[in-house]
Amino acid sequence: MGPAAEIPAGGRRIVTVGGRSIGVFNVGGEFFALRNACPHQGGPLCQGVLSGFALPGQPGEYRYVRRGEILRCPWHGWEFDVRTGRSCIDPATTRVRTYPVELIPGPYIAETYEVTMEGDQVVIEV
Amino acid sequence: MATLIATGLVDCDVHNHPASDARLRPYLPERWRRHLERFGARTRHGLAQGFPYPKATPGAARVDAWPPGGGPPGSSLSFLREQLLDPLGVSFAVLNCLHAGSSQLDPELGAAVCRAVNDWQAAEWLELEPRLRASIVLPYDDGPLSAAEIDRVRGTAGAAGFVQALMLVRTVEPAGRRRYWPIYEACERHGLPLGIHFGGYGGHPISSSGWPSFYLEDHTGMAMAFQAQLVSLVLEGVFERFPGLRVVCIEGGVAWLPALAWRLDRLYDELRDEVPELLRRPSEYLREHVWMTTQPVDEPERPEHLLQVFERIGRDRLLFATDYPHWDYDDPVRAFPTPLPAGLRERVYAGNALALYGLPERPAP
Asked: Taking a C-beta distance cutoff of 8 angstroms, is the pair B90, B363 a contact?
């Protein structure tokens, strides 16, 4: 995908991999990847606002938790845990596909081989 | 989308909006331009600007529906093509402009703004895009002014682009009352369906027990507002007086209609001598005169229940709508919890709307 530093904490990047649109999020230094399609009606979920979650307590009480970890779909506002892809309304069965994200130490340089010309022939030494 | 419906989708609820009030100025006479500059607009909900309830998202719109070139959602024809008409394979979309013209306290000002909105729709939308049709917006709480506007628009060169007259569901009085009859008479005269859309600013609470706390209550309550209006239209004898009137409930939900009809019929059987003008049971008027757009579609746990409700309402009375660009948009592929069976599918996505609005199968090139 590129250097992790290009996605600051709280930031995201939406990429297309194998024809799939995927959102990669940096949540406080941890990276998470989700399919950019809401399981409800297919809205571009990863374009949604990242905010917290109003956790119910007793009637008349709530706690505002998980700041910056709840992704809200830009269409109908369905909320998802960006860490797990599970929806807040129905975490057991309504979820968005997640993908593992791996940080690989860089710089990442491909192995190279020397190329020479012998007459009109290209020669690679292996 | 071609596999969804071969003839192309008909979207019965799309919202266009002026990029700013200044865009309507060329369509307003000097007298009303000056009035708006000096005195501004006044509506029943008491707020000079904005909505009586916060709308969950800015402009009540899909977050991705703000045109990249600026302006509010629904203000760019090119972005409408790019985000809705082209990718969804829309053959026709019916524009229901919700600009505040219809809610002015001063009926003359409201009528002037509605005239401007209708002329703006004709010049800047219908003229430029053959897939678009529009509703005639009205100062609907004034029946005679509204009827005059329907007559005026039908006499203009762009008349064919207007396929419906439009009210909002939250009126000043129940919709069956005499003040609204000139609208129904004009609709009948011109063969236009009457659209009744979600929203409006009649000044009354959405609930019959006062003002609620939440937008969620307001939005849910809109289904009750539609029920109140249908009950009024039926019991005041509107469909006896205007037998050609066709009413389209837009964005009010659908699943409540069968239960309402059952309850009305039962009470009618017991109390019919209170409304002796009615010659038939209420459910018969509803079945004959009422169409419903599907959005925001109800999502029962068992999807087959929705299909049962659709059968109850009548497979010839359901019209697909997205409500683009609003946040509660319904996607044509994903909105229904179960794919509509063949036969019903063609009707809901296109056939019923083509018949209702008298549209050809495809737009003229």
From this structure: no
pLDDT at A1 over 90: no
A123 φ, ψ to 5°?
-120, 130
Cβ–Cβ below 8 Å for B334 and A40? yes
- The helix/strand/coil state of B160 is helix
ipTM over 0.85: no
- For residue B132, the cross-strand partners are B93
| Residue with the two structure tokens 């497979």 | B315
- A47 Cβ under 8 Å from any chain B Cβ: yes
DSSP B84: I
- Which residue of A41, A48, A74 is in closest CB contact with B335? A41
Q: Which of B10, B247, B32, B12 is nearest to B119 (CA)?
A: B32
What gap in Å lies between CA B344 and CA B347, rounded to an integer? 5
A89 CB neighbour count, 10 Å cutoff: 10
CB < 8 Å to A48, chain B = 63
Contacts of A89 in chain B (CB under 8 A): none
Interface of A with B in 9-28 (CB under 8 A): none
Q: Could you tell me the two tokens for A110?
A: 């491909």
Chain A residue numbers with beta carbons less than 8 Å from the beta carbon of B329 are: 41, 75-76
Question: Tell me: the pLDDT tens digits for B10-23?
Answer: 999 999 999 998 99
DSSP state of B70: S
Radius of gyration of chain B measured on its C-alpha atoms: 20
Chain A residues near residue B324 by CB distance under 8 angstroms:
none
- Tell me what the pLDDT averaged over chain B comes to: 93
User: Which pTM does this prediction carry?
Assistant: 0.89
How confident is residue B48, by pLDDT bands cut at 50, 70 and 90?
low
Tens of pLDDT, residue by residue over B179-236, are: 999 999 999 999 999 999 999 988 898 888 998 889 999 999 999 999 999 999 999 9
Distance of CA B203 to the CA centre of its chain: 19
Task: Give, for B288, the enclosing helix (H) or strand (E).
Answer: helix B282-289
Give the integer Cα–Cα distance in Å for B296 and B108: 34
What distance in Å separates the CA atoms of residue B364 and residue B131, rounded to the nearest whole number? Answer: 8
Please judge whether A42 and B331 are an interchain contact, meaning their C-beta atoms are less than 8 angstroms apart: yes
CA A8 to chain centre: 13
How many residues does this entry show for chain A?
126
Residues A21 and A47 sit within 8 Å (Cβ to Cβ): no
Q: Is B57 in Cβ contact with A77 (below 8 Å)?
A: yes
Are B43 and B104 in contact by the 8 Å Cβ rule? The answer is: yes
Q: How far apart are CA B337 and CA B314, in angstroms?
A: 19
